[in-house]
Amino acid sequence: MNAIEKNKLKVILVITSILTLVFIVIVGIEYLNEKRRDRAL
Q: What are the two backbone dihedrals, phi and then psi, of residue 13, each rounded to the nearest 5 degrees?
């Protein structure tokens, strides 16, 4: 493995982890909104 390949892997890992975090946050917000709506009804 040369340096360029390692850097590519690092970038891919960073991008995937950021996307995963964003996904979890969006799902969490949606879940909380659903709970709040249920409580209001």
A: -60, -45
